[in-house]
Amino acid sequence: MKIADDILNKIGIKPGDRIRVYRDDCVFEGIILPRTEYDDLDIIVLKLDNGYNIGVSINKVKKIEVIEKGSFKEAYEIQESPKDERGDIAFIGTGGTIASYVDYKTGAVHSKMTVEALLDTYKPLREMGKIRIRQAMSKFSENMTPNDWIKIAEYVREEFNNGVKGVVVLHGTDTMSYTSAALSFLLDNLPGPVTLVGAQRSSDRPSTDAYLNVICASKVAKESDIGEVVVTMHATISDDYCYVHRGVKVRKMHSSRRDAFKSINVPPIAKVTPKKIEYLSEYRKASVGPIRLTGGFHENVGLVFYYPGLKADILSKLYDIFDGIVIAGTGLGHVHEDLIPIIKRATDEGKPTVITTQCLYGRVNLFVYSTGRRLLKAGVIPGEDMLPEVAYVKLMWVMNKTRDLEKIRELMLMNFRGEISERRVAHELP
Amino acid sequence: MKIADDILNKIGIKPGDRIRVYRDDCVFEGIILPRTEYDDLDIIVLKLDNGYNIGVSINKVKKIEVIEKGSFKEAYEIQESPKDERGDIAFIGTGGTIASYVDYKTGAVHSKMTVEALLDTYKPLREMGKIRIRQAMSKFSENMTPNDWIKIAEYVREEFNNGVKGVVVLHGTDTMSYTSAALSFLLDNLPGPVTLVGAQRSSDRPSTDAYLNVICASKVAKESDIGEVVVTMHATISDDYCYVHRGVKVRKMHSSRRDAFKSINVPPIAKVTPKKIEYLSEYRKASVGPIRLTGGFHENVGLVFYYPGLKADILSKLYDIFDGIVIAGTGLGHVHEDLIPIIKRATDEGKPTVITTQCLYGRVNLFVYSTGRRLLKAGVIPGEDMLPEVAYVKLMWVMNKTRDLEKIRELMLMNFRGEISERRVAHELP
Q1: Of A20, A290, B117, B239, which has the maximum CB count within 10 A?
Q2: Does the ipTM surpass 0.85?
Q3: Pairing assessment for the beta strands A229-234 and A194-197 based on DSSP bridges
Q4: B109 lies within 8 A of chain A by CB
C-alpha cells in the first residue's frame, strides 16, 4: 500500500494547495486538507468547490496536478476587520469545532482556527457582500462562562452599531444553546438577526456539516428581517437544508449527528437553503435600533436535575451554596416529598426555586398532583415550558436585576423572548 | 345551566353505577366516574366498555337509565391474592397515576386506588386468564427510592417463584425509567417478561391512556417470551398501539403526552396492540429460571448535569458528599477544563466519575477533542451511549459490589442488560 503523505511530500504538495487528482473513472479538483487520524494512510482529503470534502485513495490515483499553491497556514494569526470598515454582515469567531483543526500528531481537534482561515475556503460567502470578521475568543464551548456570554454580546452590539445588517456567531455546539439563551436575554431591540452557527464535525473532516451551516446562517444574517437571537443548524442528516431555531427554545439533542439541534415545544422559525428562506412560524421583527444590552448574570445560581435517591440533606447543602436553584423535576415538575420542606425553608430565606421538567418536552403543571400543589405552597416558581437550561440562564439574568423574591417570581413568569410558549388547551370531550 | 352533580344526586346515581344516557343524537352506556375539577359543572363522565372515557353535558341529556348499581368505592381496601393461589400473570401495584383517583374536594390526584379497584373496570383482563394481584406500595413515583426498587424486585421474584408466566408492575411515569433500569440490573435469569406500565392521565379522567397501556402490558406479560425488564406504554398520541421499550434504554420525554416514553439510541423491542405482538428488534429470551436477585445499590452516588457556570469548587464539594458521580456532560462528554483537575483528584482518592451526555441521544466519545482526552487522562469512565439516569443506577449497583476503582471501571464498561448499544461505524468516504 502506498502512503499518501509520503507521495505528497515527495512531489512537494502541502495542505492548502489546490490540486487536480486523476483517477481512471473521474477527476477531482479541490484544496488539500491535513489528514486526520481517522483517515486511512492511503487517503488524500480534498475540499471540493461545492463545499464537500472527499477522500481519495492514493492507490487509485493516476496523476496529480498542482493548480495553485495554497496559503493553508498551520497556525493562524487573527486578522480582525478594522472597526470603521463598512460591512454587510459580521462574523464573530468564538472557537468550537466549526473553527477548529485536527492536530494530527495527537489526532485531537483543537479550536484554534480563526474565522478568516475558515472562510478562506468558502467561496460563496465572498460573493455575499462585504463580510466583517471579528475574533472574540477561541475556545471550545464547554469552556464558555457567563462572562464570555457578555463579551460576545458586546461584540454583537459593536457590530450592529457599526452598521451591519446581521451577525453570525461561530460557536461550539456543546453549549451553543446556553449561549443563545444568554444572548437572547442580554440583547434587546435588535436591529437585525443574530444567528449562532457551528459544526458537529470539524471543517477539515470529510463529513463536515460546517459548509451548509455557515452558508445558511450567512443568508439568514444578510436577508432575513428577524430581530431575535437564533441558531441556524442542519435540519436533517443530509446536506439539504437548515432550521432556524429560536435561541431560547433550542437544545442539542444528539452528541454527534448533524441534525442534533431541535426546537423544543415550538416549531422552528424558518427553513433555509443556500437559495431560500421559508418562514415556518411567527418571530419578532428587527427593530430600527439602537441595540441595547440588558444587564448581566448573577452567577451564584445552580441547576439541579432531580433523581430518586437525591436526599433532603444534599439539597439543603446546595441551598447553602447557591442563591437560587433551578430544579429539573420529574414529569409535570415533581421531586420527592422529603425535599419540599427544604425548598420551603429556602423560600423563607429569600432563595428562589424554579421548577422545570427533565422530560425536556412539555410543560410543568403543579396543579394536577398533590406533590405539585405542595411545591406551590412551598413557594416554587413554575418554569412553565422553559427548558431547564433556559430557566437557569434566565434566573441568573433576573437575579442580576433584583433579589426580591416576589419580583423574581414576577419576572420569571414574564415572557421576554418567547422562552415561554403559549399554553394550548386540548379539549378532548366529544 | 344545569349542574350535573345536583341532578345525579337527586335521582340517586353515584360514581360506579352503570348507566345509559340518552341524547337526541345517540345513546351512551358506561360506568359513571367521579367528576374532576377539570370537568365543567354540567359534565357527566362515563367510562365506556371500549375503555374510553367521555364527557356528556347534562344539558343535552333527555333521559338517564340505571342499568346496574355499582361498587365504586371512595376508599379502596387492599385485597391481595393469597400466596399459594395459582395465576397466569401477576399485577404488582406501586401507585402512580394509573392507580390514582381525583380528590374532588381539592381537585388533585392521589395515588391511593389499588390495583384491584383499577382492574374492576377492565373487562378484557378478566378474560386473560387468572390474574394475581399484589400491592407492593402506594406512592407517586417521584417518591420512589432505591429501597423501593429492591422491594418491587422482591415481589417480582416471589411471583415468578409462585409460577406466573409474566409480571406487570403498575408504576407512576415520573421515575418509571429509573425503576425499570434498577429492576433490569437487580433481576437476573428472568423466566418471563417483567413490564412496567403506567398512565399519563389518571384512570378516571376522560383522556386516560391507562386502558390501552394495561391491556397491552398484560398481553406482553402473558404471551411474549421476553426475558427482560421492559416498559409498555403508548407509542402514539392516538389510542392505537403501544411500544415495548428495553428497561435500560427508555426515557420519559414529555411531561404530559401519551407517547412520552421513547427508546433512546435503539429501536423499541416490540409493537403491541390488544390483538398482536410484533417484534421489532432482538431481545433476551426468557430463561428456564430460577430468577435471581443480584445485590442492591450503594446509595451515596450523585448525578450531576454540567452547565456553564458550574465551578470547580462546587464540583469539589459534591465529591466531598458522594462516593462516586455520574456527570451528564455536554456533547460528546465534556465539561469545563477547570473541572478536570477536580475529577483527577477524586479519581486519585478512589472515587469514580462516569461521563455521559446531556444530549441524551448519541454516544460519549472522549477521543475526538482535547477536552475528552484530558478527561480520560484524569480517569473518567466513558458512559458510552448509556442514558445519564441509567449510568447513575448502574454505578450504584456496581458500587454495591465493589469499591475497587479498576473493577468499577471494568463493570461499568461491561454490557449487562443492553444498556450499552453496539457502536455503529459510519464510513462516509465515497
Answers
A1: B117
A2: no
A3: parallel
A4: yes
Half-sphere exposure (CA, 13 Å, Cβ side) for A152? 34
**Contact criterion met (CB below 8 Å) for B237 and B258:** yes
Q: What is the pLDDT of residues B76-89, one digit of tens each?
A: 445 677 777 788 99
Q: What is the pLDDT of residues B29-57, one digit of tens each?
A: 888 876 655 556 788 878 777 666 778 88
The reply to whether A186 touches chain B by the CB within 8 Å rule is no
Same fold, A4-68 and A89-293: no
Give me the residue spans of the domains in chain B.
Answer: 4-68, 89-293, 301-413
Distance between CA atoms of residues A325 and A317, nearest Å? 12
For residue A97, indicate whether it is catalytic. yes
CATH architecture of A89-293: 3-Layer(aba) Sandwich (3.40)
Each residue's pLDDT tens digit, A370-402: 888 899 999 999 999 999 999 999 999 999 999
| Fold type of domain B4-68 | SH3 type barrels. (2.30.30)
Query: How many other C-beta atoms are found inside a 10 Å radius of the C-beta of residue A147?
Result: 13
Using a cut of 0.95, tell me whether the model's pTM lies above it. Answer: no
- Euclidean distance between CA atoms A371 and B175, whole angstroms: 14
| pLDDT, tens only, B338-367 | 999 999 999 999 999 999 999 999 999 998
The string over B224-243, giving b where at least 16 C-beta atoms fall within 10 Å of a residue's C-beta and e elsewhere, is bebbbbbbbbbbeeebebbb
Q: What fold characterizes domain B301-413? A: Rossmann fold (3.40.50)
Best residue in B27, B103, B142 for a mutation probing chain A (most A CBs within 10 Å): B142
Cβ separation of B253 and A334 shorter than 8 Å?
A: no
